[in-house]
Specification:
Length: 178
Amino acid sequence: MRGPERLQALVHTVPDFPAPGVLFRDLSPLLADSASFAHAIELLADQAITAGPLPDLIAGMEARGFIFGAALAAHLGTGFVPLRKAGKLPPPVIATDYTLEYGTARLEMSALAVQPGQRVLLVDDLLATGGTALAGAQLLRHAGATVTEALFVIALDDLGGHAALLDQGITTTALLAC
């Protein structure tokens, strides 16, 4: 198997985690398999290259977006911006609150990480409702960045994330759909 189907077998579904009714997609087996992890990064890189000019920066959402985003940034030769949970970055930060599939959260970014006009590609492991990615885009745009593309390893197609991001001018691509 050469395509994303090779990765699908390494994604495990865990029911009722982190809250009742949520089906958590565990990518730990994919990350632990070096060939599959490298393959995922290559597929994400192919998508980034196909989307148009390479971004100036990759932004990844905490926590698993750090893993895929940082590896993709290194692969593409771009910088990486971590979008963190509240209280994890030193000041100055910019922040936004957002809604998750199972609650609310706060996302922060260093106010010094992005320069106005930089093109930033959002990367995360999973797209559900789009709340985290929209919060990330809002932070980046507040800093003056241009955000028009987002890449995900998995998309939960029935939760509306693709449409929510598209409504904000962000095209999404996922390697796997569930």
